[in-house]
Design brief:
This protein is α/β, with parallel strands linked by helices. The protein has two domains: 148 residues, Rossmann fold (3-Layer(aba) Sandwich), CATH 3.40.50.1010; 297 residues, P-loop containing nucleotide triphosphate hydrolases (Rossmann fold). It is 31% helix and 19% strand. It has 14 helices and 18 strands. Helix 8 packs across helix 10. The longest helix is centred in the first third of the chain and has 18 residues.
Length: 466
């Protein structure tokens, strides 16, 4: 049974994995105090070596703690260290305490040995005895440690500051189906006009306040109204009628949209005013094919971008195949099977031997394959950048990649959050989920979740039943 104490200021005991996951966790607990057991410092020291993300985070955590120690007062380390309060915060940050004495507490015989996890549990129990008027809570990313804590009656929580959303169902989908009564309710203040061959509508009403820039609004019927929100001002929106890429006259590099979401995706991918596009969807929904077709059309036909740059996280689905010989691009080729498969489709769609020869030439000269490991410090000018399998990237990695964009560059992130292969990310902490949520209010970005599989009836059936 969990021990309950007075509600109010809490004392959070952090596990090592919290700091190795997010070094800034020290500053994420608002007015509450933080306690770091000595075993946590030992584990940070043991994991600080190497170029991995975990090692970098361990070193950064140590730097943060050293900076706090440099500001200590004459009261001594036992009094703790005041954590910085964010600007314009309505609270005063708590204090950081280090373990300065041995804290012992007898554990049940079912917790054998001197494992670091058991050491942390002993520390929490001892703190509960020392501070009966304070709620002492263990924070850990380790599920098994939280289960052991629950067995001992210790309040334990996951570190949730890195979670973009509580539930993936709350993630912005990029589209909105209008109610059947929408046009009747908004017809009085409706205005329409044509400009440079495009049709626009100005719509006013209370529902507009919940819309987002570059959102797809539709009436839910086949071949019905499909518009993209161009401008939002209070309760007024300007909506542009989408180009119908289902029509053979509007084919993009020989490819036509097969459903509403694909049609909207091509509208965003072909729009030079949208600098950042994110595509979410299960396998077979056409993410890579649509993105490549739009890229080839704008690089070769429109000359809008100089070349296509494609990269992805090199996280294997099964066991790693080991060392790969060759240059950077040669090492990346086994990871780019999706690129090769879709280029075959595009060359066939463009027709004949000329199309296949042109595609091979494009692969050599206009499509560059780069590894994430060498992106730091680069700037891409007038490039069409594709980040594939983005669900396997952390929010920090996504920030590092997107900030590579220079003038005239468009970035497309795509992936399937149901197929995360890295063990340290979940659907709600993935970098792809992070950018979808953070970019939804920016007028130069767009997002759509592709729902209908168009690969084959076998793939569609497998996605549903397996």
């Amino acid at each position: 049974m969990v021990k309950t104490r007075a509600v109010g200021k809490r004392l959070f005991v952090l596990d090592t994995n919290v700091l190795m996951h997010d070094p800034s966790a020290l500053f994420r607990f608002h007015e509450h105090d933080i306690f770091l057991p000595m075993i946590v410092l030992e584990e940070l020291d043991n994991n600080k070596r190497g170029p991995s993300e975990v090692a970098r985070n361990a070193r950064q955590s140590s730097r943060f703690m050293e900076e706090l120690l440099s500001n200590r007062t004459e009261q001594g380390i036992e009094a703790g260290f005041e954590l910085p309060t964010p600007n314009n915060a309505s609270f005063k940050s708590g204090r950081l305490f280090f373990q300065t004495q041995v804290l012992m507490h007898d554990l049940p015989s079912s917790f054998p040995g001197s494992k670091p996890d058991n050491n942390i549990l002993e520390t929490v129990l001892a703190l509960q005895d020392q501070h009966p008027d304070v709620t002492v809570i263990l924070v850990s990313k380790d599920i098994n440690l939280r289960i052991k804590a629950a067995a001992l009656g210790i309040p334990a929580e996951d570190y949730q500051n890195d979670q973009v959303l509580e539930d993936l169902s709350l993630l912005y989908s990029g589209q909105l189906e209008l109610s059947p009564e929408f046009w009747d309710q908004h017809s009085k203040e409706l205005a329409s006009w044509k400009e440079e061959g495009r049709t626009y509508y100005r719509i006013s009403g209370p529902d507009i306040a919940t819309w987002y820039p570059n959102q797809l609004v539709h009436d839910g019927t086949a071949n019905g109204f499909e518009g993209i929100v161009r401008r939002l001002e209070n309760d007024t929106a300007v909506v542009e009628l989408c180009i119908n890429y289902r029509n053979a006259h509007h084919a993009v590099w020989g490819i036509n949209a097969r459903n509403r979401e694909q049609n909207f995706a091509l509208n965003m991918l072909m729009d030079p005013a949208i600098d950042f596009v994110s595509l979410l969807g299960n396998a077979g929904t056409g993410k890579t094919l649509l993105t490549l077709a739009a890229g080839l059309a704008q690089v070769l036909d429109d000359r809008r971008y100089q070349e296509i740059i494609m990269t992805r996280a090199t996280v294997p689905m099964g066991d790693d195949i080991g060392f790969l010989p060759g240059t950077e691009e040669e090492k990346m080729v086994p990871w780019m099977g999706a690129l090769m498969d879709n280029l075959e489709v595009l060359s066939t769609a463009d027709g004949g031997e000329w199309g296949r020869a042109a595609t091979n030439d494009l692969l050599r000269h206009r499509i560059k394959i780069h590894s994430l490991n060498f992106m730091r410090g680069r700037t891409f000018l007038n490039k069409y950048v594709i980040i594939d399998e983005a669900q396997n990237l952390t929010s920090k990695q996504m920030k590092s990649l997107i900030t590579r964009a220079g003038p005239g560059t468009k970035i497309v992130c795509m992936g399937n959050v149901a197929q995360i292969d890295t063990p340290y990310l979940t659907e709600t902490t993935s970098g792809l989920t992070f950018v979808v949520d953070r970019f939804k209010d920016w007028p130069h970005s767009g997002h759509i979740t592709l729902r209908s599989g168009e690969r084959s009836r076998l793939a569609d059936h497998a996605s549903e039943i397996l």
